[in-house]
Amino acid sequence: MPSKTTKLKKLLFVDTNIWLDFYRARNDAGLALLKHAEAVADSIIVTYQLESEFKKNRQAAILEGMQELKPPGQIPRPAIFSDAKSTQIFGVPGHP
After folding, report:
1. Residue 45 belongs to what H/E stretch?
2. Residue 94 has pLDDT above 70, yes or no
């Protein structure tokens, strides 16, 4: 039994689904949480079962995250290209 002056090291177990959620992250909050996990990496418990489940399901989580990606909306043209005179200066094809 540890003495009263001995400080016990705290350990953290993170479930496989939480690790997979980093692939599904849709905002910066997931990345911020990952940075916190990296800061305490020496205290994180990783078991063989967790590693196996993670590797087994990682591809599906990546594909799921990629399917959530959407193309950007209409990107406005810079004002310089809106004026035909400006496009002539730069020799843009298709403009006189």
Report:
1. strand 44-45
2. no
